[in-house]
């Protein structure tokens, strides 16, 4: 099955509760069809609903991807994984746009009411309200092919092709509410601290666009024996170039950060003067993902697990 096409056509938006439930019902049925044990685990005050496959408490390596989708941003969410300065400036630009918009409301309120206190209150309320609305509500983005249907497709492809004899070596989690401050993974990590502190956790996020495979890892992750296998097979991909970076000096806000031994795999383009970048996220232009990226990453992760000894 082509999971990228299947999910894109049937579940393009996974933002509202009913949209996410429809995807979960399909995903659980599909994963059971593959022969895995699977459950939906609720946790946290917001009732994050994570899809758990296998036994993360016993498997030496954990693979994850988030299944929720984002709201549309004021500006594209451009990932700049190795350019923290430019990333900070870009985030400041977004904040500046919000501040200017709120200031326009303040000036209009001041002109209409002649009351500076009301104008200042409206300025604060407008800025805070828009920020919260964009972060936790907003207009659902209608195209989410790279973010993160590509990660889901790679994860499901890997699961489908992993031999039954090797499946006890790995567990998988499809996280809810990554787009809401990593809600699903943070809640899971809080409830399962042994997993959060000890398991090598490999997260797939936005793997569909770019000829460069970007692997960001924590120091504790690189101390795992399993990381050696991971690095070996990702580096062996011939159609893409794998780059390995420390979490220090990297910018990549996704579910891997909820785990002490976290690793993130993404894909990026490269432009001189900017470095690695992934465009069009959280916009209607997020309509493409390279099936070659997905197949190569799924194959590499499959070979990694097959070679592992337990």
pLDDT averaged residue by residue: 92
CATH superfamily caption of the largest domain: Zn peptidases
Number of domains: 2
In CATH, what is the class of the largest domain? Alpha Beta
Termini Cα gap: 30 Å
Secondary-structure element order, as H and E?
A: HHEEEHHHEHHEEHHEEEH
CATH topology grouping of the largest domain: Aminopeptidase
C-alpha Rg (nearest Å): 20 Å
Task: Report on this structure.
- Strands 1, 2, 3, 4, 5, 6, 7, 8 and 9 form a nine-stranded mixed beta sheet that branches.
- Helices cover 45% and strands 17% of the residues.
- It has helices at 3-10, 17-34, 84-113, 116-136, 145-161, 183-191, 193-198, 219-222, 225-235, 291-307; strands spanning 38-43, 48-53, 61-66, 170-175, 200-204, 212-217, 241-246, 262-271, 275-277.
- The protein has ten helices and nine strands.
- The model has no long low-confidence stretch (mean pLDDT 92).
- It has two domains: 3-72 and 140-307, Zn peptidases (Aminopeptidase), CATH 3.40.630; 91-136.
- It starts with a helix and ends with a helix.
